[in-house]
Amino acid sequence: MSGNWGYIAAAWIIVFGGLAGYAIRTIVRGRSLSKQVPAEKRRWS
Amino acid sequence: MTTQSSNTLAVPDSTGSRGTRIIGVLALLSMAALALFGLVLSPPDASQGEVVRILYVHVPSATFAYIGCFLTTFGSAMYLWRRSRWWELVAYASAEIATVFTAIVLVTGMIWGRPTWGVYWVWDARLTSTAMLLLLLLGYLAVRRLPADHEVRTRRAAIVGLLLVPNVMIVRQSVQWWRTLHQKPTLLANGVGAKIEGLMLFSLFIGFIAIGLVFTWLLIHRFRLAWLEDQVDEAGLDVAIAERRAEGAAS
């Protein structure tokens, strides 16, 4: 059973890494596009 | 200092806000708690052993993938019915996040299957229907991003979006309707089959909280990003129309 820790680590790294990667991509694109849109059109600001 | 630079100082150039920062901090804390309970404190399962730890991230990811699909279908229906741009953006943002979560579910499920079943993949009803769900989500995103008139592609994508919930129902019921290698529902089991309790149940509960917070945080940011994309598209279209008019006036 100890060999199964490799599978466990792979699954958790994929979940944490995948979500973190997607979150970073979303934030970076958001910052880039925010500079092109006037502040009054960004209602959440 | 100009007015524009004053605005830039007052308004952050991002999709973030006070609310998303609070949700983000809570999500990070709950993910840390999930790692602690899921990897350290919860005991191994009597039959699966340590591999059960994969399910603390796999099952909540699947649940929120389904929720993303429900939001996409509901948003698509609202767009087709009321022409609501807000709901169309909710559908689009949800679809992209559901795609990420469904991909995670498939990959973590395959990793769980290797030590449990001895194979990464079988053409089992649950696995196959989940793969079809991923293809449908990718289809929605592809149609939504086709180089066509905005109204045309959002309407076509919304029609594809309507198909997601029926597909989710097939995925959900696949273990009941057909004989499959995949186990039957554990949490909602009616007194039969595998049960979960104690620290294992609590770890799964933390998983739902953590993944739910991450889903919410992503949904808000992705919705705002979609809003920005629309604004930039419209601005680009306005510039193109103005250029054409200027060309027409000059000739």
Condensed summary:
The complex is a heterodimer of chains A (45) and B (251). Chain A has 45 residues and is an all-alpha fold.
Mean pLDDT of chain B: 89
Radius of gyration of chain A: 18 Å
Which word captures the global form of chain B? elongated
Helix content of chain A: 55-70%
The shape of chain A is rod-shaped
- Major beta sheet summary of chain A: none
Q: Level of helix content of chain B?
A: over 70%
What does this structure look like?
The complex is a heterodimer of chains A (45) and B (251). Chain A is mostly helical and 45 residues long. Chain A is rod-shaped and about 55 Å long. The N and C termini of chain A lie far apart (51 Å). Chain A is built from one helix and no strands. Chain A is 67% helix and 0% strand. Chain B has 251 residues and is mainly α. Chain B has a domain of 152 residues. Chain B is built from eight helices and no strands. Chain B starts with a helix and ends with a helix. The N terminus of chain B is likely disordered. At the A-B interface, α1 of A face α1, α2, α3, α4 and α8 of B.
List keywords for this structure.
heterodimer; A: 45 residues; mainly alpha; 1 helix; 67% helix; B: 251 residues; 0% strand; elongated; disordered N terminus
Layout: helices, strands, pairs:
The complex is a heterodimer of chains A (45) and B (251).
Chain A: H1 5-34
Chain B: H1 3-10, H2 18-41, H3 55-82, H4 85-117, H5 125-144, H6 150-161, H7 164-177, H8 198-250
Helix pairs in contact in B: 2-8, 3-4, 3-6, 3-8, 4-5, 4-8, 5-6, 5-7
